[in-house]
Amino acid sequence: MKAKQVFDKLIENWQIKAVCFVIALFLYVVYQTQSVDKKVFSVPLTVESKNGYVSIEPHPRTVAVSARGKAEDLAQVRESDLKAYLDLSYVSSDGSYDFPVLLNLSDSASVLNPLELKVTPEIVRLKVEEEITAFVDIVPLVSGKPADGYLLKAATVKPDQIAITGPRTMIQNCKSLQTLSVSMSNARTAFTSKVKVEKKGMFITHDDIEVAVTVELEEAQGSKQFTKLPVTIRHLSPELEVRAMTREVTVTLEGSVPALERFTPAATFVTADASAVSAPGTVYLELSYSVPRNLSLADGYTKSIPVTFAAKEVPVAETDEEEKITVVETAGGELDEKVE
Fold first, then answer.
1. What is the bridge-based pairing of β-strands 123-139 and 161-167?
2. Paired residues of 90 in beta bridges
3. pTM more than 0.70
């Protein structure tokens, strides 16, 4: 009887009770809808691998993570609380695979009421390859122009090799890495500069070290013409004099450009030895050039010149005494002049 009485009570005015239940359910749904908020985060996407395989093509740098939950809970969530990543650990051979985008929450975010999280895109397709390490040569990169008259002789680097890591195909195709540029603008002497090694794309990595690049210079070789150089006659006999000769010559010197620019011929740069000439006449005298050791005479220089010699005229000596004339009277009483 009691059970029947309870049942009768439940169905008593059931229409009114049904309407009240629907109204209560509607109010609950409205409340829940109004209390739930939505927030979208832009989260960096990383790639993780623990089995020696790496991606060989670019992947999205970020993914969109949509979070739904209570407004007070979402207000406590930051982008740094979310971690999006692709896990390559199950790959066992080279190829292209679809990887799900995985999410991790920080400890502070995970203790909140359950959040509804959705990531876009959900799947990322990547081509993967075995990761290897190899040593490659480091090539010094030198730019600029040294000072006038100087040339680059050699550029060396220490250490001259570096270990690089990355996908097998890329590592096998990478034969060397360059240093960052070293300027030798207006340099005149050798110098050493420390620089970094270039980054070879986003898939090949190496230690971030500095290497020493040594730049060696050398003087450029060239030629320069010197004109109107006077010829000096040496060891001329005091009884002879020069009547006619070539007074000036032109020569071309060869050597390093800086040495040529610094050199100025002396007044006695070109000489002719007349010690063997003892009589008047025309003879050919060989020319001597006082060329520094770091320079040389170019072909075509004047080797000898004709010189005409004549005897020196000896001037007649003049007397300083004057003739004295005296007038004397002879025994016959005549006048006569006497010269003293």
1. antiparallel
2. none
3. no
Give me 339's structure tokens: 């010269």
Q: Is 259 helix (H, G, I), strand (E, B) or coil?
A: helix
CA separation, residue 321 to residues 83, 123, 294, 315, 328 (Å): 131, 135, 65, 18, 22
Q: Up-side HSE of residue 264: CA atoms within 13 Å toward CB?
A: 1
How many Cβ atoms sit within 10 Å of the Cβ of residue 48?
10
Q: Which of 99, 93, 84 is nearest to 53 (CA)?
A: 93
Query: Could you give the maximum distance between any two Cα atoms of the chain, in Å?
Result: 225
* Contact between 101 and 121 (Cβ < 8 Å): yes
Distance between CA 220 and CA 275 in Å, rounded? 41
Q: Across the 340 residues of the chain, what is the mean pLDDT of every consecutive 10-residue run?
A: 58 64 61 64 90 90 86 76 90 92 81 74 94 96 95 96 95 95 95 96 92 96 95 94 93 95 94 94 95 94 94 68 53 54
Q: Round to whole Å and give the CA distance between 6 and 1.
A: 9
Dist CA 232 CA 18 (whole Å): 137
Contact at 8 Å (CB) between 134 and 171? Answer: yes
